[in-house]
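Hello Y.,

Per our agreement to keep a running log of every chain we model this quarter, I'm adding this entry. I've kept the format consistent with earlier entries: sequence first, then predicted structure.
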Amino acid sequence: METVLYIAVFGALGCLSRYYLSGWVYELFGRAFPYGTFAVNIVGAFCIGLIMEFSLRSALVSPQLRIGLTIGFLGGLTTFSTFSYETFRLLEDGELLIASANVLFSVMTCLVFTWLGIIVAKAL
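Predicted structure for the entry above:
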């Protein structure tokens, strides 16, 4: 139950952070490009690398806190952070083909499903 509470609290904070950070970035740079989303994805990718690497090497971060920060906060902030971390680990392990497939399939599948969602929404 403690882990679920960590996820819920940090998830709410991640969602609010995404809202405010992306909004601030959009105010600075406009909406011609998805700068806000791009910014939170970069922040999330950096944070998951930092949190995972630090927490797996140190006893200072409990497993519950690590889960709260990664699944909760970063999950609320962005899902791209997990994608980045997993792809980096594949590359680090010498799995270039799998890492490349992960990038290609993830991006293409998300684009296709975005397109499908738009089609369904337009049909309603």
